[in-house]
Design brief:
Elements lengths: L1 H19 L6 H13 L30 H12 L40 E2 L9 E2 L61 H12 L6 H7 L2 H7 L5 H4 L2 H13 L7 H6 L8 H11 L20 E2 L20 E2 L20
Antiparallel strand pairs: 1-2, 3-4
């Protein structure tokens, strides 16, 4: 009886092990892997693999002034959802009623859950942002509504210059544009020598009527978290919009679509994509030439590139980079499933 039970356990264990082994590659898999090797900047398909969100050292494009750490990520996550920062509303009735997550709803792919997100000046929320609407006490000019093309908060570690026009960030495509930074009081932040995400986040806290100082961190219980996240910054400079922006940037860099079917396929699970998806990838990376622009692991461009595609909506233009037309940076293609509008629109960022 004991021998029979042992044999049974061996067969069961063998079956379990075999069930965990990835399916063997098909001809389509082999062809796609070969194609990715050809298109990759390193000569290997592995260059398209995103890091694990918790592997902070592997996250690209980090600001040397703001290396990602676990304490910053946790603080940034808390601040992202914190309504207590919203203490500069247009009308007192809206004090502490909005946060970053009012317009960037995780359940909606960090989009607003409605056509246009509203922070200060809105009431309600619903399950995932769809129930948020303008407070009748506010006029249209009073509300803090998202722009037509709000900052994407997915795969931002692959973004070097923030916003569609690449406006924020002291480096990358903005090198040589210093003469225009003083034309806008908010763009002057680029003189601080920051990467795009850090610069834009600090600007956003100002624009979205959020306050960070010692009084606020004390009242909300965040002072110790700021101390843990920024021990090298003098206490007199530690509890500010800039350090809050740094923490939120660290959190943003960990929000990755690294469990998407294509990412799982790259890591060896050949069943993660359907045959139709694999054939689509062959076209994308092959004769369609999409990879010429969408060439990073996030399937945006690396380095950032700007193109005039003849697109204008909601009366907003991109950055004129010498061609006299509205130009926009190449957007990411990961995580856009279910978005009903394409080409530089608020529904897809």
């Amino acid at each position: 009886m004991k021998k029979t039970f042992t044999v049974f356990l061996f067969i069961a264990a063998t079956g379990y092990f075999l069930s965990c082994v990835h399916e063997p590659a098909t001809n389509v898999d082999i062809a796609l892997e070969d194609l990715l090797n050809q298109k990759s900047a390193t000569g290997s398909f592995e260059a398209y693999i995103m890091p694990v969100s918790g592997d902070y050292a592997a996250l690209p494009n980090q600001d040397v002034k703001n290396p990602v750490t676990a304490t910053k990520v946790e603080l940034g996550r808390m601040l992202f959802f914190e309504t207590g920062l919203g203490v500069e509303p247009t009308y007192p009735v809206s004090k502490a009623t909005y946060s970053c997550s009012s317009c960037h709803v995780p359940a909606r792919g960090f989009t607003a859950g409605r056509f246009q997100g509203i922070a200060d000046g809105a009431i309600g929320f619903g399950q995932s942002g769809e129930g948020r609407s303008k407070n009748p006490l506010y006029t249209g000019d009073d509300v803090d509504a998202q722009g037509a093309r709000p900052l994407p908060t997915i795969n931002t570690t692959y973004v070097t210059n923030a916003l569609w026009a690449g406006t924020f960030g002291s480096f990358g495509v903005n090198i040589g544009t210093e003469s225009v930074w003083q034309q806008d009081s908010l763009v002057e932040i680029n003189f601080k020598g920051l990467q795009g995400l850090e610069a834009n986040n600090e600007r956003a806290l100002i624009v979205h009527r959020q306050v960070v100082n010692k009084k606020v961190t004390d009242s909300l219980g965040y002072t110790a978290m700021f101390d843990a996240a920024f021990p090298d910054i003098p206490a007199s400079e530690r509890y500010t919009r800039q350090t809050a922006a740094f923490a939120i940037a660290a959190y943003f860099r960990t929000i990755l679509t690294n469990e998407a079917p294509f990412q799982r396929w790259l890591r060896g699970d050949k069943t993660a994509m359907t045959e139709q998806q694999k054939n689509g990838a062959l076209v994308f990376f092959g004769k369609a030439g999409c990879v010429s622009c969408h060439n990073s692991p996030s399937l945006n461009s690396s380095p950032h590139r700007f193109y005039a595609l003849g697109v204008k909506n909601l009366y907003q233009n991109g950055h004129d980079r010498s061609f006299g037309q509205a130009q926009f940076r190449t957007r990411r293609l990961h995580g856009i499933a279910g978005r009903h509008v394409q080409i530089q629109s608020p529904a897809v960022v």
